[in-house]
Amino acid sequence: MTTDPYEALGLTKSATQDEIKKAYRKLVRTSHPDLHPDDAGAEARFKAIAAAHDLLKDPETRARFDAGEIDASGAERPQRQYYRDFAEDAGNPYQQRRGFEGRGDPADIFAEILRQRTQQGRDDFGGGGFAAPGPDFRYALEVPFLDAARGGEMRITLPDGASLAVRIPQGAHDGQTLRLRGKGGPGFGGGPSGDALISLSVRPHPVFRRDGNDILVTLPITIDEAVLGAKVTAPTITGPVNLTIPAGATSGRVLRLRGRGVARSGGKTAGDQLVELKIVAPPVIDDALRDFLTEWRKTHADDPRADLLNEALS
């Protein structure tokens, strides 16, 4: 499987950040092992896709990869001139050491120096042995819209088949990364375990849309509700509420339900829900309604498009 992050996402280096995001979302749905339990290769593809997205979604990290400063895993690439520069320092004790002339890559020479010093019992790391934290593990998790808005808990499948509980914070947003301390790979030489980094993608909802901490809803109303006004039931992310439609309402009018949006950081206040009204004609026009509107039209010559047409021609 390719280690090139662009190839993993089916992109080229000229891809925009938006194209990277779209490609990642599409591939997650076709490769997540929980969604494709019978696909033996899904887990490997999923891990490669997640790692590629984590590297390329950050413009700074992407630029460093493109410049060759880091590899596809995000690790620093060895600086090829490091040993030579180090050796040319007048105070460097290795400059006059014999046995390394003509041995090739300076990075290999430097590695040999460290190996010999270790064999001699000499330790540049404080004399207590080398210890380092374990690697971070990266995962992608698709979250239902309401779980992201209200908070919740989900589980992800780990490479060894075990599962890990992930708490979704209230107000989680698309592209957010959660860090689970100590849930990554084991440390080296007694060092601490790495972390699990969970990249979230929020699944679209058929009714609700989100703009920051506000929730947007389009609410159908009948002709009589628009003309006469009414009390109707409107959905919110926390359950249905009563909403008053003012008499003479038109399609496109927006009503505000304060505090019915996504809770802000800390949970003390929340955004609003914005309800856009949409007048819907009845599915069947009976004779009574047709006759009434025919007579009504004869005595009402109001043209709601007059201003629009005048502005279009000005």
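^ that was protein a. below is b, sequence first then the tokens
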Amino acid sequence: MSDASITKKAIAKSFKHILKNKNFEKITIAEITAECGLNRQTFYYHFQDKYDLINWIFYQEAIMVIRKDLTIDNWDTKVLDLLSTMKEEQHFYQTTLKDIDGTEFQNYLFTVTKEIFMEMIERLGNDRKMNPEVTPVTTQQKKTFTAEFLSYGVVGMIIDWAQSGMTQSPEEITSSIKDIINGARMFAVSRYFQELTKA
């Protein structure tokens, strides 16, 4: 691990520790750096401000968990890992997604889930078991719309779960998300068979 990564992690750890006992708006850069034995100049060398720090934490501790080696075949395990990470750092995620603008986290998550849905849609479309002459014609625009629609639903579930106290377990939320994705697959297959019977 590089010195820069070690420093960033130390800053992030100090920030999260202070956040447990103090309102975000009242936390100063001086407090964060004092907590980890650094100076303000070091903080600004790595981050523009507190929001930049939060977004770095989002990406490093959550999005990288789900993005690393993510495939359509292991996405449910990755989502469970993500939700488990969020649960372990419950106060941080509840605070940042509820009381602070967590848009960047939502954008990260949306991008990742959209990629998975696009892969799923492409895989269904390229299934050699489906006769290309009767498979419904799907434009790239329709594929993108469908992937985005499903992504908004999944991201919405995760954000709502975090903001409402994470009362359900990560396993329960992952199971609900699997139901959505399996439902989407079943819908796609049913459309295929409807077209097949018309042919």
